[in-house]
Predict the structure.
Amino acid sequence: MRAVSVRQPWAWAIARGHQPVLNRAADTGYRGPVAIYASFRVDLESFESDVVRQAASAVWDPADPAAAIGGIVAVVSLAGVCAVAASGAPCGCGEWARPGAYHWRLADPRPLRWPVLAVGQAGLWELAPPVAGGVARLLADDAVRAPR
């Protein structure tokens, strides 16, 4: 499984379905499942962002497993990439999209019940087999426990 490193609180916002766009400096041809790794570095300036403050004001809980650092907190589907804004043109990717960035369009966020510890990397990277196994087990457990 592939993964991408994201600082908190952005990783939390993605895991909880608030942020459907991941702003990146590079494009990717990859489409499919992506594990969201919450890096050890926290973006303290992000709390000055209106969209982060609005999302966090009602539901932020520091005990939420999606708010952890240093582990995989969710799996999403990378559905597409908008390159329009990277060239400076306006696009319709929504309030979470930053001008001048590639907008990785995320869908189907599946937060994990607890983080799976890992060591992050830059860019889009492959999870080590033991980490991927831990993520897969948590996803399978949640699928079995989901109400029908």
In short: Helices lie at 10-15, 50-59, 129-145. The first helix runs from residue 10 to 15.
